[in-house]
From TrEMBL:
Biased composition (Polar residues): 1-17
Species in which this protein is naturally found: Archangium minus
Parts of the chain that traverse the membrane: 143-162, 174-194, 203-221, 227-243
Keywords noted in UniProt: Membrane, Transmembrane, Transmembrane helix
Keyword Transmembrane helix listed: yes
Region of interest (Disordered), residue spans: 1-34
Record's protein name: Uncharacterized protein
The organism's taxonomic lineage, starting at the top: Bacteria, Pseudomonadati, Myxococcota, Myxococcia, Myxococcales
Length: 245
C-alpha cells in the first residue's frame, strides 16, 4: 500500500469508472440492488460544493455522512469500495464538514474500513492520518481511553486488595485469574489503539467483554475471585464504545 495507490484483489480487472487514456474520470455506478434509496451521494457532493452559505454546506455534509454510514452498514462489495475510492481520490470531499465537525473525507475513509477485508487494506495512508486526526479532535476522544484504562486498572487493583485481605489462595487457583486479567489488559489496549469503530477495535472490545463475563461468572457462581475486575472490564468496554462525537 503506497501513499497514492491501493491494491485490488487479483482478477478484479480495471475498476469501473477508472479513467483511461484520453478520458476523464467518471463516478462508478452501484449495482441496481445496491443503489441508495436516498439521493445519490455524488449529487449531494456537487450540491454541497456549490452551496452559497456555510450552514447549507454543513447540512448537506451531514446528509452525505449519513449516507456514507448507510453504505458501510450494508457490507463490503467492490462497487461500494470503488465509489468510496472515487470520492476520496478525486478530492471532491475536501472542505466538506458537517454541523458536528465531522469531515466527509473522514466518514468516507471510515466507511471504507468498515467494509472489511480486503477493502480496508486499500485505505491510503493520508486518508487514514486524516481520520485519526479527526478522532483525536473529537469530543471525548482523549478522556474515554484514559477513563477505560483507569477503570480496568482500578478494578484489577481492587480485586488484588480483596485477595490480600482474604489471604492469597494457592498458585494453582490464582493462575486462571492472572491469565484472564492479563488478556483483558491486552484486549483493552487493542480497543484503545485501533481506529474508532474499526474491525480491530470491535474485536478487541468483544474479547474484553467475553473475558470480563467469564470473570464475573467465576466470581459469582464458582467461588473464584474476579467479579470486581470483570465488572470493571465491562464498564471499560462501555466507555470505549460510547459515541465520542
Amino acid at each position: 500500500m503506497s501513499g497514492t495507490t491501493h491494491t485490488r484483489p487479483p482478477g478484479s480487472g480495471t475498476r469501473q469508472g477508472e479513467p483511461t487514456e484520453g478520458e476523464g474520470a467518471e463516478l462508478p455506478s452501484l449495482a441496481p440492488w445496491e443503489a441508495p434509496v436516498e439521493a445519490p451521494i455524488q449529487e449531494l457532493v456537487e450540491e454541497a460544493r456549490g452551496a452559497t452559505t456555510d450552514a447549507e454546506r454543513a447540512a448537506l455534509a451531514a446528509e452525505i455522512n449519513r449516507q456514507l454510514d448507510a453504505l458501510a452498514a450494508r457490507g463490503g462489495s467492490r462497487e461500494v469500495a470503488d465509489l468510496l475510492h472515487h470520492l476520496l481520490e478525486s478530492g471532491q470531499l475536501a472542505g466538506l464538514v458537517d454541523t458536528e465537525g465531522r469531515s466527509c473525507r473522514a466518514s468516507a475513509t471510515e466507511a471504507l474500513m468498515r467494509l472489511g477485508f480486503p477493502f480496508a487494506l486499500e485505505v491510503r495512508p493520508e486518508d487514514l492520518d486524516h481520520l485519526r486526526g479527526q478522532d483525536a479532535d473529537a469530543p471525548g476522544s482523549r478522556w474515554a481511553p484514559l477513563a477505560a484504562g483507569g477503570t480496568l486498572g482500578a478494578g484489577i487493583v481492587a480485586q488484588w486488595v480483596l485477595l490480600l485481605e482474604r489471604g492469597l489462595p494457592g498458585s494453582g487457583d490464582l493462575q486462571p485469574l492472572v491469565l484472564l486479567m492479563g488478556l483483558s489488559l491486552m484486549a483493552l489496549l487493542t480497543g484503545v489503539l485501533a481506529p474508532e469503530r474499526s474491525t480491530s477495535q470491535r474485536a478487541g472490545l468483544l474479547v474484553l467483554a467475553i473475558l470480563s463475563v467469564i470473570q464475573v461468572f467465576l466470581g459469582v457462581f464458582w467461588g473464584y475471585d474476579g467479579a470486581i475486575s470483570g465488572l470493571a472490564g465491562l464498564l471499560a468496554c462501555l466507555l470505549i464504545w460510547l459515541p465520542r462525537r
